[in-house]
DNA sequence: TATAGACCCTGTAGCTACTATAGGGTCAAG
DNA sequence: CTTGACCCTATAGTAGCTACAGGGTCTATA
């Protein structure tokens, strides 16, 4: 079984340009070419791209995905490295949630205070303006 | 009272490059220059930059900040436009929190499942790999 | 007066993770 | 033999800065 880049894109929900971008970024190995210089992918590539997509959907950065891919190649190795990357990412996600939650509180407060009159007595503008 | 770009930066916690970037982006008006071609800012600039920083801290995009600034100039106008921008931003923040919370659930689940043995039986790698 | 150091200037390239062109080549169907 | 769908490379754009390179200006001190 071999796929064109378009087939691979459809199979994984990835744009063609993104696949080429992953190749240039070193996430996806450069595949063989046809006589007409078209890329041809096999099941290995499909698996690897699926892995990349899932990891990206979980919010891992490209560098983290690269690290996860290379760790996943060595089956006998300890998975401590994987755990470390995942935990670091989890902490980052927690940090973002905390930041956004604080932001949400602040924004809600401002919006409910606004009585929707004129700019002159708008609480949103007021709280953005210096004292 | 007039400030150099460095003074303005210190007063607002903004890097000099960022101030020049805001000027080029149309957020901050181009100030007067000294004989030696240095930018000189006054209190008006300081107020405007403070406004920008607060709005940015609240997560508004540069385009939103630009809109808020131009709305804030017309004191007699209704503040409905301001309210609209703030509410749109709030919804966006809520969406991000929801996304990150879902991600957090998923990541936590993966990490707790990992018994930290070898890659071969790592649940994190397993759940990233295709069936 | 000379010079060191802190500051300022413009312009450009870099970062993430793509996306969107421009300007071409390849291939199968009608 | 031509149309249309697909593919190719290379480059520029997105947000919001940040970091140079390669210069000029200003002030304090020897």
From TrEMBL, chains A, B:
Chain ranges of the HTH merR-type domain: 1-71
Keywords: DNA-binding, Transcription, Transcription regulation
Transmembrane segments: none
This protein's name: Helix-turn-helix domain-containing protein
Protein source organism: Asticcacaulis aquaticus
Domain of life: Bacteria
InterPro entries in the cross-refs: DNA-bd_dom_put_sf, MerR-type_HTH_dom, MerR_fam, Tscrpt_reg_MerR_DNA-bd
Gene3D superfamilies in UniProt: 1.10.1660.10
């Amino acid at each position: 079984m071999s796929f064109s880049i378009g087939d691979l894109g459809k199979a994984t929900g990835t744009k063609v340009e993104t696949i080429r971008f992953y190749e240039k970024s070193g996430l996806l190995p450069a595949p063989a070419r046809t006589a007409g210089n078209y890329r041809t992918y096999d099941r290995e590539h499909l698996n690897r791209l699926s892995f990349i997509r899932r990891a990206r959907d979980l919010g891992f950065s490209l560098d983290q995905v690269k690290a996860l891919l290379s760790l996943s190649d060595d089956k006998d190795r300890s998975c401590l490295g994987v755990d470390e990357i995942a935990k670091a990412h989890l902490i980052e996600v927690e940090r973002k949630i905390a930041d956004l939650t604080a932001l949400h509180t602040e924004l809600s407060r401002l919006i409910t205070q606004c009585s929707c009159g004129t700019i002159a007595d708008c609480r949103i503008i007021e709280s953005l303006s210096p004292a």
